[in-house]
């Protein structure tokens, strides 16, 4: 049997645990808080294994000395936010080398295809050429109305006029049209002498 516990620990601990508990607990109760003063010598091994998942929030205060090994592995993709301190090595970007001589495109001395001459006697071409000149004088809306003096005069020059003027060679087409508009505006069909 063992007596009361001693106040001082034994010089060397036993290799095996005791098989039975002591008859009475120790007189000193265990402390609830850690020691106030930390030990000066570090332990040979860490108390806890490092966690696999990093912490979400940073620690309250940074360490006073930098670590020897970087804690973050380098990535190939750029970060979302820029760093506060610029890097010493510039990023790789394509190099554009300017050309020394400008590229000159010389125009041809003669056109490759000669323009097709207008066939002013073709009825469709003749009508388009006459209307393109008359629209400048009266406007498109007046010519589009077949009952207006302008629409009647344009129809007369294109389809009824016995002269059948050639718009490519007839120099006074505008004057002839103005007289036809005047004739229709003043009810020329009812004049005594309307030839």
Explain this structure.
With 195 residues, the protein is mainly α. The mean pLDDT is 76. The N and C termini lie far apart (158 Å). It has 4 helices and no strands. The protein has helices at 123-138, 140-144, 149-160, 173-185.
The termini sit apart by 158 Å
Helix content: 10-25%
Give the helix tally. Answer: 4
Helix-strand topology string: HHHH
State Rg.
Answer: 55 Å
Coarse shape? rod-shaped
- Poorly predicted residue ranges: none
Instruction: Give a quick account of the main beta sheet: strands, pairing sense, barrel closure.
Output: none
Mean pLDDT over the full residue set: 76
Classify the secondary structure makeup into a structural class: mainly alpha
Name the beta content range: under 5%
Report the count of strand segments: 0
């Amino acid at each position: 049997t063992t007596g009361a516990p001693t106040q001082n620990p034994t010089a060397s601990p036993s290799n095996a645990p005791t098989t039975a508990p002591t008859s009475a607990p120790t007189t000193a109760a265990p402390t609830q808080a850690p020691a106030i003063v930390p030990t000066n010598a570090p332990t040979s091994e860490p108390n806890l294994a490092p966690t696999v998942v990093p912490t979400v929030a940073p620690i309250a205060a940074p360490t006073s000395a930098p670590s020897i090994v970087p804690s973050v592995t380098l990535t190939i993709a750029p970060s979302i936010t820029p760093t506060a301190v610029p890097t010493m090595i510039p990023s790789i970007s394509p190099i554009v080398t300017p050309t020394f001589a400008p590229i000159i495109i010389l125009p041809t001395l003669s056109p490759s295809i000669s323009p097709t001459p207008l066939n002013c006697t073709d009825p469709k071409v003749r009508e388009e050429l006459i209307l393109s000149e008359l629209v400048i004088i009266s406007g498109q809306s007046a010519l589009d109305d077949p009952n207006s003096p302008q629409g009647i005069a344009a129809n007369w020059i294109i389809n009824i006029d016995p002269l059948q003027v050639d718009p490519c060679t007839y120099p006074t087409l505008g004057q002839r049209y103005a007289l036809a508009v005047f004739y229709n505006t003043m009810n020329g069909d009812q004049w005594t002498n309307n030839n």
